[in-house]
User: Fold this.
Amino acid sequence: MYSDKVMDHFSNPRNVGEIEDADGVGEVGNASCGDIMKIFLKVEDNVIKDIKFKTFGCGAAIATSSMVTEMAIGKTLDEALELTNAAVAEALDGLPAQKMHCSNLAADALHEAIKDYQSKHPA
Assistant:
């Protein structure tokens, strides 16, 4: 049902935790299935230097959160805004259809964290 990459990111999630003095924080959730994702950013010179996440949800929700942090670190904010939930699922070698809408919210949480950062640091 789940790819080896999904299982790896679920069993060994990367970048778990919280950044106390985060430059941007984004939180999204899906009330129908209970997945809640929160992403914390540290930004320097418009580049994501550190990123952490906290996720309450199923294995797919944890795996997508882990993968999006790996995909976003080192990217400019504009590059990170181009990451999509579909790209996250593809990087994990796919997700079951029933997990695509409720568990794959990681890019949305990343985008919310970037918007939060941008609201605090207008260009």
